[in-house]
Amino acid sequence: MKHIGFYLIMLIGMMLCWGCGDHKITESTETEAGLSEYRMAQLDMAQICGFGKVQDEYVCIGEAENGGYIRLTGEKPDGDFRQEELKLDSVMDETDMITAADMDEAGSLYLAVSKMDDKRDITGRIVKVMPDDTVQILADHIEENVKNIRLTADGYIIGCADGVIQCFSMEGQKKYEIENSDYTDICVAGDKLVVLTARDIETYDISDGHMLETITSFDDTLTEGLEDAASEKGKDALSCSNIMKYDEKSDQIYIMLGTGLFAYKLSDKLGTRLTTFKSADIRYDFVVEDSDTFVAVTGDKSGNKRIVVYSLSDAYAAYNSTKEASDSRTVTVYSLYYTESYENLITWYESDHSDITVQYIWGVDDQNGISEKDAISSLNTQLLAGEGPDVIIMDGLNVKSYENTGVLMDLSQVLDDIQKENPSCLKNVLYTYKNKDGSVYAIPAMETFTAVIGPEAEIRNVTDVQSLVAYINSQDKPADGNDLSFYYLESYFDTLYPVYASEIVDMEGHYDREILKKFLEDLRLLYDLEMARTTQDQINDWTARFGAYEENIKDNYSGYMSPLFNREWSGRKLAFVDMKTMSEAWLFYSIKEDSMVGMEDNTANRDYDYEPWGTDEGMIYVPNTILAVNSKKENRDSAVEFVKALFSAEVQKKYYGTECGNPVNMDGVRAWNEDALSMGTPGGAVEVGGNNYLNWTYWRTDEYLEDYIDKLSRLCVPSNPDVRIRSMIRENAADYLEGNASLEDTLNIIDKLLNVYLKE
Question: Which domain of life is it from (predicted)?
């Protein structure tokens, strides 16, 4: 079923403002009951509209993965669910969408159905579906997208995307409305309507909607969770986000935030943390079984939905122990740095491979204070002792230094299997570490590259720093920011370094001091030019908006590229970026398409193109998510099975985040786009110069999709991702860029460090 336009509109509508209250109370106390987590049945659903319990059965409403809205019903969260298609042809067509759902004790469903007209205006209607499939329209022509519906004793309450909360009788008569533009969720608690915002809990009289009180004081954990819930709401805009429920038996409100599950008693304003969530899964909706048991529908970032039980009761332990008994295989995966994207990848893999448990470990993160050198030394000690992780993600490690030690398995047969099973994989990237004798000890599953973006005719010859500097000098200073939106030393280094890394120290460990010198000179040339065209106010403004470099670099590619949407306003038509993932490509083609929210396509940016940078030998890429297998025999078969699965189109089509890279499997890229097209128009909006531009999270035309694939196919020269070499150069380049050290002194320092390292 097509969802034309709704993903975008819902996403925009769900971006809620932070509110504040006016009634202070004593700070709530916090305890932790330590509920156990039991992962239950996986649901084959693309969208979750609502989840509840009718008599003794769980009911889940949503869209099937192959289209069409369905109802799943089952007695146990780990058992088989009966599936039946909802017969809604009389009240909605294929472009309409269910945006919220609730159910009564008799089993009737109350659905919010949204429709978009040719002008992209949304109207909603409330539909009742009785157990015998009789359909009744309760309210029609609601002038907004409805995102919440809650039943009352004699009617229902809806929450709309514009922040207006409306109360209706069952006959469709509007009783009152409440304007609360920053609300996150609503629930009915006896004679009260409870409204959750980013900073408070507000209560209203259910009969007439007048405000009763505003509660603004909570413990720090709950406060942080409320703010995060408001900012996260709408991230999966196709599905519901019912995070607050009232339980009459205990007279408590239960709030399921990203940080954990909380109970809140309105009568004494006491908050209690029941458990802390270990995973970052999205929690769509939940059922309060009892004060010690909660059944939720959750989803990981790969889109997989399942039922999860959080409970103090051991009633679910039998299922858990059965599952554990069947999980006879365990694979340990290591990466040098903690990467949330790898954790998400593993969660997705486990959800589809119940017979394998994958444990993720890492060497360095923001908290443990371990240096790269010490982390690598510890890993090497384990591997040489015949121990250590089963799968090693080699990003940041010197692959060649491990090849002759015997600690890694020869993956030449695995590589042949991957290529045979996935013929659309980029051979240049797959064969990055293939030796002349045919042996292969590591295989990249992703890649990144540096590219220049601008009008095609103007950037065609911008192929090195000298031509880039000449081009910038030929342009007027931008009205907004500087030419590249680079305000940190690290921005220049991290974008430019991969282009030179392949020659400074090549894959075989050959060091070229002259290339290092050229890199430092070119880096200084670009840095000096841009700093001369940048004011301190511009630097301060950027830092105030995005924080320090380390805080925003993973998610801020849009900050470097988005001024290109409105080049007349910004004075910017150039970008120099690290194309880390499909997201940067989506943003580029969105800029090229130049669509504004609510308007027809523009044509100002149709001349844009982007060109990967390279050397005389070809376009350069950085191998990413480089997979190797421990040579120890224990778990080796399971490790190989895990590695091979990561190259499949089914896995490669999933987007895991900025740390992973662009897919190596082009069928995965095409499969992603097919999935996105089945959703309608997934994406969001970017505000530039007072205009909102559409930022699509897929390729809108086959031409754009194949252009992206063609650019990936042209990547042929691997850069050296050795993190210790990079760190030695990066740490010593700062003084040179700032004019505190000469080029010769900087070269001598780095030269000495590199020579020692390469002889180790």
Answer: Bacteria
